[in-house]
Amino acid sequence: MADAKVIPFDEDRPRGGTPRSGTPRAAARRRATPPRPVTPLPGQSGASGEPGADGPSEGPGESVAAGSSGHPGAPEVSGAPESYGAAGRGVGDGWERRVASGLAFLRRRITGEYEVDEFGFDEELTDQVLMSLLRPLYEKYFRVEVRGVENIPAEGGALVVANHSGTVPLDGLMMQVAVHDHHPAGRHLRLLAADLVFMLPVVSELARKAGHTLACAEDAERLLQRGEVVGVMPEGFKGIGKPFSERYKLQRFGRGGFVSTALRAGVPIVPCSIVGAEEIYPMVGNSRTLARLLGFPYFPITPTFPWLGPLGALPLPTKWTIQFGEPIPTDGYAPEAAEDPMLMFNLTDQVREQIQHTLYKLLVRRRSVFF
């Protein structure tokens, strides 16, 4: 073992190598021994590339392309490493681009080189992070089916009005993913949220980043006039916190404030019906005492919560359908129409009836709550 040597990968080796072939003496003997001439076989043209062969000698690149042994008909192997390397480089480039994009994203977040609008909406964070976190829940868990998303205009403002349910407001988030991922123009849905959302420590910051804003007429009108798609759920806590026995029965739509906002901005109203959210947390009771102590509008009691603790907070994997209906235009009304209480009442009732009717049709077509 004392005289063992490391043989470099490019060191010439004899075909019938011996255990001592790597010693300096053997290497010197190989260098001193002249190579034996190779006599070509009859009909073998220029196989060795030596002068005096039967045919014209080939260049170095051509002799390699003939095969690993230099004989005609030998399998072509010279292209295999190159093609393998090209494929490997393609895969590597894909991962390199992803890593580079991720590092660039982190650099922008750390240095603050990103943009948010006046409401706090962070489009880059929403597209690359928040939507990516919600998408598995949307596609794999609730398996949401979207219909009529093309009824939302490709440009300009629009007010999407939807039913609200499910004890926890996951329906608004799923509607946001539906518009973002399935609309032909890839539009963002700016949801109007209740005051409670912006009072919670972490939720408030994430809601602002995702484009949510306070459910007030001023903010909604500013967004619509900027050409944004705004989403509102007029039932509010009355819809999301209703008992399971009243599922898919729309509650009162308030005093029609969303209609007045749409009339002032002159944007269409797009009714939206959501089926599947009512069953994720079947609310069989409401502890009003705990709700008052915690400052919540209600404290839900379901078959699994609070009996199973954190496990009981896991939503049931129901099958969802989100359908966007035909838009109701408002640009044909005079500017003073927003102050007409009868017109607001009629339009509010029209939107509510269209959503309720669509809910009934979707429920009749539904085969199962979970499939």
From TrEMBL:
GO cellular component: membrane
Region listing for Disordered, in residue ranges: 1-91
Annotated Pfam families: Acyltransferase (PF01553)
Transferase recorded as keyword: yes
Domain Phospholipid/glycerol acyltransferase: start-end pairs: 158-277
Gene Ontology MF: a single term: acyltransferase activity
Keywords for the protein's UniProt record, in alphabetical order: Acyltransferase, Transferase
Top-rank taxon, per record: Bacteria
Protein name, as recorded: Glycerol acyltransferase
Record organism: Streptomyces thermolilacinus SPC6
